[in-house]
Structure formats: C-alpha cells, structure tokens
Amino acid sequence: MGSSRNKFTSLLLMFCLVVLVRAEYAKYKDPKQPLAVRINDLLGRMTLAEKIGQMTQIERVNATAEAMSKYFIGSVLSGGGSVPAPQASAGDWASMVNEMQKGSLSTRLGIPMIYGIDAVHGNNNAYRATIFPHNIGLGATRDPMLVKRIGEATALEVRATGISYAFAPCIAVCRDPRWGRCYESYSEDPKVVQAMTTLISGLQGDAPSDYTGRPYVGGR
Fold first, then answer.
1. Are residues 123 and 110 located together in one domain of the fold?
2. Both 95 and 38 in a single domain?
3. Residue where a domain stops, chosen among 61, 84, 114
4. What residues pair up with 76 in beta bridges, in sequence order?
5. Coil, strand or helix: which one is 155?
6. Where is the signal peptide (predicted)?
7. Which of 144, 168, 172, 171 is nearest to 154 (CA)?
8. Domain range for residue 35?
9. Which of 13, 76, 133, 180 holds its CA 20 to 30 A away from the CA of 142?
10. 220 and 165 share a domain?
11. 126 and 218 share a domain?
12. How far apart are CA 79 and CA 93, in angstroms?
C-alpha cells in the first residue's frame, strides 16, 4: 500500500512539474501577458543562431519549408516580378506562403515568419490585381480620402494571397527628380506628403477607439 502511494505521489509531482514547465514555456505565446514580458521571455530562450535567423530576410526563390526550419528565417520577400508561377492565382500564392509558414512553426520556438511583398501601387506582383497610379500621380489629386481607399483595396488584394506585410507606402519628399524613385514620392511639398499618409490607415485599418498612442498594427 505504501509503495503504491509513493508511486502515485511521484507521478503526481512529475505531472505538476510538466504542467509548470509547459506554462512557463508558453509565456511568450500568451497574448494576456504584457508585451515586454513576452519579448523578454522569448529572447531569453533564443540561441544565437535563432536570433541571427530571425534578423534575416531571404528572397522567395530561396525560401522552402526546410530552409525556414533549418535556419530559423524570420522573413521572406517577393521583390518586383518574383512570383510562385506565371499568372499564379491568389490560391497559389496562399499555398506557397502557408508551406513556408509550416516550416517556421515547426521550429523549437514556433516563431511565425513574416512574408513581405512590393505592393507599392496595388498588389502589382499578383496576376489580375488592381494596379493604381504611382504616388506622384496620387499626390497630384490632392485627395487624401481617395488615397485611403486605394490603401484599403490594396490591403484586401494582398491579404487574398495570404500575405500580411506590404513594402508600402514610401513617405518621402523628393526634391530632386534625378533620384531614381522620385515617382514614389507624393510631392516635393511636405504638407502634401503628410496629407497622403492616409494610405497607412487604409492599409492597416483605422486605429481602435481606445487607441492610447502605442504602435498599432491593423489587420484585414
């Protein structure tokens, strides 16, 4: 009887220990924890290789589920014209992104990757996506609400491909047209550029009513 009781006690203690370890391990994944606590907890668990991997962004052509898992890659990008296949559908894009994400989530810490795409005037890499004028043309409209609606449309078409990160907008004030990307500036007038930052709330969504000034990242 005593032996059975001791075994039961040992098993119970082991179970409690496992529960405690799992609870501690999940702290950085717990959305109820303060952001600073989650960040510090995660950083404290990461190896040097994992930190280096998370700071690395690779091009789509080099990204596979295996590479994401082996090297702990933090983000992937599609540069101009970098697509999964000619005339790829939104489903093709989403399948590609999901496959890479599976590799990232299979790692020890399960840190999801970020996929970024050049959607600077619409989701222009995606077949049949809506293409909008470059920023220099939009600035000429002097219509911030139009620019916001363009941001909203772009966000919807980016999310339809399974991507949540767009390399946009370019909030630059171009004073010299010899700069090769001057067309990405809304104007040489800072006031016009400032007015056109409505594209940001179009891409991200408006800040919630209880916004306190902390950085806000919306989602669609």
1. no
2. no
3. 114
4. 58, 115
5. helix
6. 1-23
7. 168
8. 1-45
9. 180
10. yes
11. yes
12. 14
> Using CA atoms, how far apart are residues 102 and 141, in angstroms rounded to an integer?
43
pTM beyond cutoff 0.90: no
What single-letter DSSP state applies at residue 209? T
pLDDT digit string, tens, across residues 11-65: 665 655 454 455 455 799 999 999 999 999 999 999 999 999 999 999 999 999 9
Q: Are residues 213 and 155 in the same domain?
A: yes
Q: Which residues contact 198 (CB under 8 A, 6 or more apart)?
A: 144, 145, 147, 148, 151
Helix H, strand E, coil C: the string for 136-152 is: HHHHHHCCHHHHHHHHH
Report how far residue 67's alpha carbon sits from residue 57's, in angstroms, rounded to the nearest whole number: 12
